[in-house]
Amino acid sequence: MYIISNRLLLIENIITLLGEITVQDIRYCPEMSRDANG
Fold first, then answer.
1. Which domain of life is it from (predicted)?
2. Higher pLDDT, 18 or 1
3. End-to-end distance of the chain based on CA atoms, in angstroms?
């Protein structure tokens, strides 16, 4: 259980980091974000 909980925490941290990076990209580079999204 300990290993599994550690992996879940890592996944949550990665998602949080990705979310913050995405927000920063949308703030600073809206045109690039639009291109990346489609």
1. Bacteria
2. 18
3. 40
CA distance 11 to 17: 10
Q: What does pTM read for this prediction?
A: 0.47
Buried b (16+ CB within 10 A) or exposed e, 15-31: eeeeeeeeeeeeeeeee
- Position of tokens 């599994």? 4
25, 33 Cβ separation under 8 angstroms:
yes
Segment 2-27 mean pLDDT: 83
Rounded Cα distance between 9 and 7, Å, is: 5
Amino acid at 8: L
